[in-house]
Amino acid sequence: MTTVTEAPPAPARPARPRVAAGVVLALLALVPLLVPANVADMLTRVLAFALLAIGLDLLTGVAGMASLGQAAPFGAGAYTAALLAKHATTVGPVQLVAAALAGGLLAAAVGWLLVRARGTYFLMLTLAVAEIVHELAGRWEGLTGGTNGLAGVPPVSLYPGGPPVRLAGVLYWYVLAAVLVCAGALWVVSRSAFGRTLRGVRDNEERMRSLGYRTFVPRYTVFCIAGAAAGAAGSLWVAQARFVSPADLGFEVSAMALLAVVIGGRGSLWGAALGAAVVVLVRDELSPQLGGRGPLVLGLVFVAAVYLLPRGFAGTRLPWSRDEPAP
Predict the structure, then answer these.
(1) How far, in Å, CA of 78 to CA of 72, rounded?
(2) Reduced 3-state DSSP string for 179-197
(3) Domain regions of the chain by residue span
(4) Between the N and C ends of the chain, which has fewer C-beta atoms within 10 Å?
(5) Are 178 and 236 in contact, with CB atoms under 8 Å apart?
(6) What is the per-residue pLDDT across 282-307, written as a single tens digit (0 to 9) for each?
(7) In angstroms, rounded to a whole number, what is the distance separating the alpha carbons of residues 178 and 248?
């Protein structure tokens, strides 16, 4: 008589990651109540730049398409938000959606050709497009203000007819909510069947083609999604700075975003956010105290991350960590 052995139940997922995430979110929500206004302003910039890095990580880490051109949709979103604030509406969510559309449309316009390239060719083409957009922003004085940029951008309001948001803490909460919504959407994309397709194309494009996938479509789609995320980040950046110039479309923005992805760990969206925090803190806060040597410190951090943490901060094994898909 054959004895049927029941399979052991699947182990329950540990609750520690969810608890840790809840603690982090609670601390982020309490920031305006715990720190002075200037620190809240700085952390608002960190959040906006983190969204740019998360969108780039979806493109670079998940899809395997390293880009040096994310400053272009970031700047397009920033200028869209600034122009809307000066001439149409100060409602922050409206500016956010419009900026995301502007970044996505710019990515869609140039991506149709760019995503056909691979590797270093794709990297250099994205850089070339970003430099063209940067030059255009500097010369189109009637729209962008030229090299002087657009100053005096009105503060955002949270709803039509609402009062302008002038308190640093309230603005921080608005940017935090927007980043959580956008980053959550990007996380869902990375964990979906589409995200698995992107990883398949990244790891073995020829095999995906042999299985019947049109690899151009997911590559083009994720390029547009990353552009929309960059545009949304540009809107949040302007909401805090209330100023935008061609420097926001420069090479440094793209390079710093890619550096944040490498430091944080490719393929891990929360790692990209952590890398963005390191980059902004070193560049904006630590550099003035070191006599402008922030880029040197960032270079040393990058070298240390490459040699000591090949998978970035996200690759550090924590007691409650779960395996991330390999980049």
Answers:
(1) 10
(2) HHHHHHHHHHHHHCHHHHH
(3) 35-248
(4) N
(5) yes
(6) 887 777 777 767 677 777 777 777 77
(7) 20
